[in-house]
Amino acid sequence: SLPDTVLNGIEVYSTKISCKVTSRFAHNVVVTRAVNRADTAKEISFDVELPKTAFITSFTMTIDGVTYPGNIKEKEVAKKQYDKAVSQGKTAGLVKASGRKLEKFTVSVNVAAGSKVTFELIYEELLKRHLGKYEMFLKIQPKQLINHFEIEADIFEPQGISSLDAEATFMTNDLLGVLTKSFSGKKGHVSFKPTLDQQRSCSNCTTSLLNGDFTITYDVNRESPANVQIVNGYFVHFFAPKDLPVVPKNVVFVIDVSGSMYGRKLVQTKEALLKILEDMKEEDYLNFILFSSDVTVWKDTLIKATPENLKEAKDFVKNIQDQGMTNINDGLMRGIKMLNEAREANVIPKRSTSLIIMLTDGEANVGESRVEKIQENVRNAIEGKFPLYNLGFGYNLNYDFLEKMALENHGLARRIYEDSDADLQMQGFYDEVANPLLVDVEVQYPENAIADITQNNYQHFYDGSEIVVAGRLVDQDLNSFTADVKGQGALNDLTFTEEVDVKETEKALKEQKYIFGDFIERLWAYLTIQQLLEKRKNVQGEEKENLTAQALELSLKYHFVTPLTSMVVTKPEDNIEQEAVADKPLEGKPEPITSSYATQYHHQPPAKPYYYVDGD
Amino acid sequence: PHFIIRVPEKEDALCFNINEEPGVVLNLIRDPSTGISISGQIIGEKKVNVKNQKTYFGRLGIVNTRADLKIEVTTQKITLWKGLDQTNFTWMNTVMVKQEGLSLQINRKKNIVVSIGDGVSFVIILHQVWKNLPYHHDFLGLYTVDSHRMSVQTHGLLGQFFHPIDFEVFDVRPGSDPSKPDATMMVKNHKLTVTRGWQKDYRKDPRHGSEVPCWFIHNNGAGLIDGSHTDYIVSDIF
């Protein structure tokens, strides 16, 4: 009889997920070792779900001592190899979007009887501070019991760790004993090593109960509002002041109430708005603009969030009805005009910040419906004075359009997934932007000291978030430099100054054995690529080409699978080497209809064409 | 805490101590005309029941009633109020704060320069000691700059000396400590026995300070200060 760890002839010896986080930059290695115990060749597959914000940097597959590495190439180059694979009737996409936060990397290979295989996937990401915490998210879903299953996370934060927690959705009392989490000073550690028996979904079951989300959250000490770290000529500057009063805000909610919002969507939207109204502060101003075929406003001007007005606002929200078509342009233009007029007429406090939150579930189909024209109208009306946040509810909408329009106007777009918690998603988004502590934030460095800095000006700094700027030191012999962060607070103008002793800072970090040497350079590259890709969405022509070229060069240099690159994985199959391609799926694109390579491999080529997930 | 009063007209200085219980709040400066007042709360050493326990300022409160502004400085943090809204900083910040009628520069772990209105400035120095010292802990120092910009009505333990003061010292004679002669001082129509000594000015060197020779007035500045030192005890930092 075969042990419980053998399923369909395949035994998985071990799966180890090791995460090393240094200054918010996470380097994750997932290694699985398996053997084919069957008498015949078997397919062994390896699935990893990784955050959408992560970049894959490496994948290798070792079969009986022979290693098959993945090579990261320019997408066009990889595509030629991909086309070849497709012409042979096989889809080659290795990565596809998976749920809200994740994308799924899948590879499978035929392994001869008795052969062993090791898969190793490495990906990296910069953990973002969100509502006061950094979060590292791991999806755990082994297909069978594993002899040695292990998650190890080592966190090193030069500012010192102030809190650390780890939890899993599949946690039981028994498993709690094998989850250890500890932190002291600059180091934190999380370990999770369930035994074989602890993995069983019931006492005699051969199925695994490890199925769900494993989340590590932590934060760092913030005695000082800023922290600058330097390694090998690259620096990163983290800025997150605390205990500042919240800048009053003027919010216009521009809500789609067209016929498609009928039913649960509108119910959830109302619930979210009612909750948001409860959280409004008395210093804030607000209004609601509803758009369908026409535009309806709650009040003609912005209204102070007094208890009486909020009560009236709630009554208004409760009575919102769906009707008609989708006139995005007029809804937005009305909201922008209202904010501009309020500022001009000094209706709103001088020290306050304005924003528009637009929610829609569809495409513009009445009034001005040309997306380019809507973008132009909005851009010209806002003139960079305040941000526009676009929430796209569901999938029947042009998300690219919403994202582009938001980015053009210093905001961002967020998809609201149609689900039971859609109201919570909307509230969650509002919570992120509800507490601006600083506006017009600019991070300044001496011009001759540094180069290649990432974005250094932000319209807002929100409570619980963090501004991260990275760059390169021009002068390697530089002893010190000063970083100034200027911003307008609720009551005053603030200039935070950070004196950086280059040699001391570098020496202090190098002494830490936790650090993988070039992490700040990689963090800088990661951030630069992300920002170049974002900027690229807003421009055309030569500028777009330049940004693309820069992002591509960095992606190739630092071996990141980004929307501009692909990783080609060469697999031995029946003595013929075949290739598969790992690409990065994009949020704005429709969900690809491809099946994963693993599923596809044993089937005849279907009649339907396959779609390639392409960054362009 | 010790007080040093520089008297430029005499190219000399006067000094005195105020010995009060930890927790007591003293009115240091009060100018009804500009609306500015500063108070300081006394802290003692870490160990109680120490003979001749030294006391320091551990908390300072600055108020500008005209601008509806309050600043509280402790050895841990700096809190700024405008009306009911507050902003907090720690001594780990280097930050310049500007708002109508106020400029506040915090220099990380060193000092704070507060400028109010038309240029009245105060410097608050953080004296840090090694945290494992058995007796001492961090304390604060207050220095005034441009005190002539305060009105003639300014009073308080320090504020009363913003106006010119005249004194005369005579009959210098050996004191109980051979290195510190005693003398007789005529000031504010009082005849006092004073002792030549030194006190430390920490503005330039917060760690070691620089020694300032001064005439020391005994008994909590009795005779030099208007009234008794207990007249300056107030109930609250603001």
Describe the structure.
The complex is a heterodimer of chains A (616) and B (238). Chain A is α+β, with helices and mostly antiparallel strands and 616 residues long. In chain A, 24% of the residues lie in helices and 38% in strands. Chain A contains 13 helices and 33 strands. In chain A, strands 1, 2, 3, 5, 6, 9, 12, 14, 15, 32 and 33 form an 11-stranded mixed beta sheet that branches. In chain A, strand 5 (55-63) and strand 6 (66-74) form a beta hairpin. Chain A is globular and about 80 Å long. The model of chain B has no long low-confidence stretch (mean pLDDT 90). Chain B is globular and about 55 Å long. A 7-stranded antiparallel beta sheet of chain B has the order 8-7-6-5-4-3-18, with no helix packed on it. Chain B has one helix at 218-221; strands at residues 2-7, 12-17, 25-31, 36-43, 56-64, 69-74, 77-82, 85-90, 95-99, 102-107, 111-116, 120-127, 139-145, 167-173, 182-187, 190-201, 210-217, 233-234. Chain B is 2% helix and 51% strand. By secondary structure, chain B is mostly beta strands. In chain B, 32% of the residues are buried. The A-B interface holds A 223-225, 241-245, 489-499 and B 80, 82, 85-90, 92-99, 102, 108.
What shape does the CA trace of chain A take? globular
Span of the ends, CA to CA of chain A: 52 Å
Q: Please compute the radius of gyration of chain B using only Cα atoms.
A: 18 Å
Q: Poorly predicted ranges of chain A (pLDDT <50, ≥5 residues)?
A: 590-616
Taking pLDDT < 50 over at least 5 consecutive residues as the criterion, the unreliable ranges of chain B are none
The percent range for strand residues of chain A is: 35-45%
Largest sheet of chain B: 7 strands, antiparallel
Count interface residues per chain for the largest interface: A-B, 19 and 18 residues
Total of helices of chain A: 13
Order of helices and strands of chain B: EEEEEEEEEEEEEEEEEHE
Strand order of the largest sheet of chain B: 8-7-6-5-4-3-18
Oligomer status: heterodimer
The helical percent of chain A reads: 10-25%
Structural class of chain B: mainly beta
Q: Helix fraction of chain B?
A: under 10%
Annotation, overall tally of beta strands of chain A: 33
